[in-house]
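During the second half of the funding period, the structural biology subgroup turned its attention to how the target accommodates small molecules. The most pressing case was zinc ion, which had performed well in the primary screen but for which no bound structure existed. We therefore specified the complex as follows and requested a full 3D prediction, including the ligand pose.
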Amino acid sequence: MRLFFPLSCLLLLCACEGEPETGNQADLLVFNAKIWTGVDCPGVEIAAAEDYCATAMIIGQGGRVLSVGNDTTAWSSQIDKNTERLNADGQFVMPGFVEGHAHFSGLGSSLRNLNFLRSKNWDEIVAMVAERAEDTPEGDWISGRGWHQEKWDKPHDHSVGGYPIHDELSRLTQEHPVILRHASGHGLFANAKAMEIAGVSRETPDPRGGRVLRDASGDPTGVFEERAMDLITDSYQNWIQTMTPESRKEEWLLGIEAAQEECLRKGVTSFQDAGTKFREVDWYKELDETDQLRLNLWVMLRHSYEEMEGNMDGLPHYGKNFTCAAIKTELDGALGSYGAWLIEPYFDNPGFVGQNTTLVETVDSIAQLAKKHNMQLCVHAIGDKANQETLNVMAKYVKPEDDHRWRIEHSQHLAVEDIPRFGEMGVIASMQGIHCTSDALFAENRLGTERAASGAYPWRSLLDAGAVIVNGTDAPVEDVDPIESFYASVTRKRADGKATFFPEQSMTRVEGLHSYTGAAAYGAFQEDRLGTLAPMMQADFILLSKNLLSCQDEEIMDTEVLGTYVAGKKAF
Ligand SMILES: [Zn+2]
């Protein structure tokens, strides 16, 4: 009797207490987990062999975290028969990854078009395009992306400036214009049919900020760098315009669905898009209003100054899962294609300092526009000169004490004297771990050892100088896989073992995870809702097969995403 009495009391108590406070009831209990919450774990030694802050958490209505801890009995009044239970089997649980800079619809279309990220050489690519041509109606464009000549297992025997020549590709695709974008997004390859439609010949001059590659006799080889890409992409866009608006939107939507699926499968629960058009903003709003966005999407608007000026009604926009509160512009191109704008010339291209793709005055006007409309400014800058000019422009319009969170996208190669300016000015360095190891095969050739050692992907120096680093992949430039980028961030080693790039600039494990969760959310003013697993935060979390804080370096790449939850609901 003595035992029975208190139990019935307890049951009575639960019923009484539970009723008026339904908002406190747990929809989901996660237990038997090793949880890294993303916030400081009091008393937990992060360097210990088994690192986690808590073993359990409860999630309530609206998909918010109610409590995180070790003692589920403390929550007995909040857990009842309706509470779903998730046994994590001792696996590592952490906040979902926040992809800090990538291209959502670009990722979608790369999943639907030819993708050469894993192609071993040019012959393989030509064969893939020729095969696609067989199933494509005559005259339709064939599009693909992801090739990178410096990552092939053998250089092409028929090449100019390190790039293949279009002859073989053109011979196999005589009835189809072909456009194949470089992995960096800063160059493309066109076949003869595409060049014919675009009206490109040996007489075509190089446009400002771009280069048409030519053979010894002056004929275009098929490679178009930076602004010269417009010659081909304009023709491609003209063809796209011939489709009905409905079929264009349908194709876009199929890409978005594919991108969502791919992200959730890889543990990405938030995505920061680095270049959205007005039309897409409208489409994303529609998807958000009809609850079709399965992850959080935050986008940077990207248009010319003239297109944006006077057309900013309704911006910034804060929806449920969709936010547009930033403007993107760019000052230079990419390092691989000699498009990064450098202070001193390229080490392997003497006399050439890269491309300044947008006038500094134009970026200045866009900065004023961002300030006027209370939007974050995000400037693509890769070379040290581009970064310096960007910091100079930003310094004109934001004071360090303002909470502006303006960002430099990539912040890749920095003059040593500019590194402290990020922390001092509160400018966010939006960098991609995977770019470092991906570029490791050529970055030192381009920059020379001295500049590569002191200012290339200088994460350690930036963090030590108080900068906030946001991580990401720039997908579809790279695979959207956060594990691969995390591995690069904490080891600076290529996954294929071919190179290690100045490992003294590595992030620690915690810094690496933070750059992919809380810091990335901070980079979008979303840290009050996303990026950590604390009470009241949105319950975006993932289950992983390895403990990313304590597993061996060599084990990181074997990590599998076992489950992805967005707002407490299973999404993968
Ligand atoms: Zn990008």
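Two results from this model are relevant to the next phase. The first strand starts at residue 26 and ends at 31. Residues 107-240 form a domain with the Diaminopimelate Epimerase; Chain A, domain 1 fold (CATH 3.10.310.70).
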